[in-house]
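Q: Got a minute? One more chain.
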Amino acid sequence: MITARIVKTAFRGLGRNKLRTFLMMIGVVIGVLALTLVVSAALGAQKRVMERVRKFGLDSLMVTAVSGAERGSPSASGQPTTTLKIEDATALKDEIPAVVDVAPFNRRSQSEVKFEERSATVGVFGVTPSWAPVWDWDVKAGDFISDEDMDLLARVAVIGETARRELFGTADPIGETVRVGNVPFEIKGIMQDRGTSPGGGDMDNRIYIPLSTFMRRVANVDHLWGIKVRLGSVKDIDPAVESVQAVLRERHRIAPGLPDDFTVRKPDEVKEMAEEVAGTFNLFLIVVAGISLIAGGVVVSNIMLISVNERRKEIGLRKAVGAGRRHIMLQFLLESTVVTLAGGVVGILLGAAGAWLMGVLTQLPTTLSWQSVALGVAFSSLVGLIAGLQPARRAAAMQPIDALRS
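A: Always. Here it is, folded:
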């Protein structure tokens, strides 16, 4: 009965001061809104990371011509070498039983490609026909690079969707001719949409040409940038890494004790790299959400203190007719918690709408889950309890006579 009366009094107090109640809510709404967006973006980032790992292949390895590379993009860490050859790719497939297929390739990450008066900066990849099955990635229109294209050093290309859109707009590019540097290439196919790479790049902003043509007519090199290795099973990854290292060290005549002149990446390393890319963004959002919640708590606490001073006679009268310290504390704690909890609910609803809108506008995956709702409710309630504690103590400590005289 007493508890019901306290609850009724708390709600009556909030109802009498609607503007004050709204001002207390707004800070929490912003904080929980930010928190909901953070959790949604973080869960979406996890989903995106796993999508990138799946694109790389859970049963795959990547051998790159970089010595001493650690985390991050292989092109940005370690020293590039010229010792990785096409013959190395053949040896890996022939000598290691766990290897199902290999896809040697070379690349230029920033190349100007022209079509008539249009130009675009795209990645140019020299690949073999095995690229499609090894990456599980084929054309959606036209044909991929063939063995005949390799043998003839053909000037043909397969274009990604982003590059196609920038160079051709809505027109069909198949049969048209683009120029990579000064070399003309006829478009023979359009790749399936792939999205973002494990390193964060646009995998659709690429053009693929025969590896032989790339090495002879475009780059004039005899070495590779990398070899994608497809294994028979995920269980083969760790022993396959050791086998790949052993084969390549022997072929490159690397003496015991000397470092590799190549780098072998496993799917879990690709996952770490992708998580690192997404982590910076998530950390920024977490800081923003934390600051917003703290600011909301400060606002609630200050307004509650003002409310206590303005309601001294009410507090004195209640204590004079028998209300104890515990009853007064409970009333003010209940008021602050109800306000912040209501603000939390509004923040969750706005956050859900914001997450959906962010996904639509940025094309980034966002996931609203029970974690978002639970954290919003928990943090808004916690903010209310903490912010209302000092005002509640001050109200409970008032002496009835002093409060009624004021």
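A: The chain has two domains: 2-52+273-405, 82-261.
Q: Perfect, thanks.
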